[in-house]
Design a protein that fits this description.
The protein is built from 5 helices and 6 strands. The chain is of the alpha/beta class. A 6-stranded mixed sheet has the order 2-5-6-3-1-4. A hairpin with a 6-residue loop joins strand 5 and strand 6 (about 165-175). The two termini are about 15 Å apart.
Length: about 180
């Protein structure tokens, strides 16, 4: 059975990770390595298995982060037709467009400026207000981040200072 778990993370105040760029950036190995270390520390501390980076998942996250910057919105579903899906699409469709056939996925989105990875993870894990964040999501972010269902993750950031968007995708592939 396929199902989706969603979370919205919103940074209300600009303050927080390094300088921006002039536009969307590609999902970087360093970003995913650094975030994966933090994410897996939280997961293993809560009894969940570690998740592994998957380039297809990161590409799906990056396409959505980029789309939110280009079309200037903040939502899980795209606002306009996209090259990946045609019609406005959700994270599951973006994963499929990257060749990742999933049985379960989770998407967390965030916006803000200069966020550290720890601040971003803390806000998602808290599942509520946390520092410069206000977080909404089904069952709280911590419950979603620590679900045993996930095998892979990818995180992406897009946008210049003043308009940054973040997307975390976690997924489990269908059995081969």
């Amino acid at each position: 059975m396929k199902y989706a778990i969603s979370l919205v993370a919103l940074c209300l105040l600009p303050a927080c990770m390094g300088g921006g760029s002039d536009g969307p950036s590609a999902p970087t190995t360093q970003l995913n390595t650094d975030f994966g270390t933090l994410l897996n520390g939280v997961r293993m501390g809560n009894g969940a298995a570690a998740v592994a980076f998957d380039q297809r998942v990161a590409n799906a996250a990056q396409s959505h982060a980029t789309d939110m910057v280009v079309d200037n919105y903040f939502a899980h579903d795209t606002q306009n037709p996209t090259p990946e899906c045609g019609n406005p699409c959700d994270a599951g469709e973006r994963l499929l467009a990257e060749g990742y056939t999933w049985k379960v996925f989770y998407e967390g989105i965030g916006r803000g400026n200069n966020l550290t990875l720890q601040q971003l993870l803390d806000a998602w894990e808290a599942g509520g207000a946390g520092g410069d964040f206000s977080v909404d999501g089904d069952n709280g972010a911590s419950n979603n981040i620590n679900l045993a269902d996930f095998e892979h993750f990818g995180i992406a950031k897009a946008g210049p200072d003043g308009n940054q968007r973040w997307v975390l995708l976690m997924a489990d592939p269908t059995d081969p």
